[in-house]
Amino acid sequence: MKGSNPSINKMQDYCYGGESAENLASYRGVALKTLFFCGMAFASAVVTYILLFNLLPSSTLYLMIGLGGAGALIFGIIASFSRDTVKITGALYCLCEGILIGAVSAICDAAYRGVVLISLLSTLITLAVMVSLYAFGVVKVGHRFRSFMTTALISVCFIQLVVFLVSLFVPAVYNLFYGDCWFAMIVSAVMVLFVTLFLLVDLDNIARMVDGGMAKKYEWNAAYSLSLSVLWLYLEFLELFVRIFGRSRRD
């Protein structure tokens, strides 16, 4: 029952044997808590988006990005290593991540009107499709797939860190991965596919948790993990569609 996500990994050590059903994790409980986390992020993103477009001066844009990014990093680290605090730190993470997403979305939508809406719809449709495929047994998560995705996640994080550090000294590297070129668009498409597949790992972790009779309080951990992937998927879709919109406008 080992999972690949640090937010729910090893939670089976805390299963309650012989407890009544109301004290055990359920799919409904995880779903409601996922809606809570995603709702927090969505609400703060919408408020940030509206404020930047209507009330706040443009000079506050990067301040919002900085505050949101710093808060998300801090609370994300705490939530990952302190599982018992996820109910609070996870909510604070989603709040800060929502501020960051709202600010980034405002920038993208100002440049390419409609890119935010299509990214949001693509995220919701992709999530619905993956949940359906997993729920009906069309796709299954085996040990090899789980190991591959875990290794790939570590590799992606390492590569992104290296690209960021190298790009500080070699701008051409940044342009190659994040600039206006076909290679960067292919990288974005691959990342969308990767995060989409990682949703299956999150869903399998939730199934293992519920079927394993884990304590109800760990629904927060499972919901937080799934929420991370959903928010990540939105950002990857946003990045991909920004590049697509940009190239189509020039053509």
List the helices and strands and how they pair.
Blueprint: H1 27-54, H2 61-81, H3 86-111, H4 115-135, H5 143-167, H6 171-178, H7 182-211, H8 219-250
Helix pairs in contact: 1-3, 1-8, 2-3, 3-8, 4-7, 4-8, 5-6, 6-7, 7-8
Short description:
The protein has 251 residues and is an all-alpha fold. It contains 8 helices and no strands.
Please report the number of helical segments.
Answer: 8
Give the oligomer, counting copies of the same chain as homo and different chains as hetero.
Answer: single chain
The stretches of 5 or more residues where confidence is low (pLDDT under 50) are: 6-18
Question: How far is the first residue's CA from the last residue's CA?
Answer: 50 Å
Secondary-structure element order, N to C: HHHHHHHH
Largest sheet: none
Percent strand equals: under 5%
Q: Residue share in helices?
A: over 70%
Describe this structure in words.
This protein is 76% helix and 0% strand. It has helices spanning 27-54, 61-81, 86-111, 115-135, 143-167, 171-178, 182-211, 219-250. Helix 1 crosses helix 8, helix 3 runs parallel beside helix 8 and helix 5 crosses helix 6. It starts with 26 loop residues before the first helix and ends with a helix.
Descriptive tags:
251 residues; mainly alpha; 8 helices
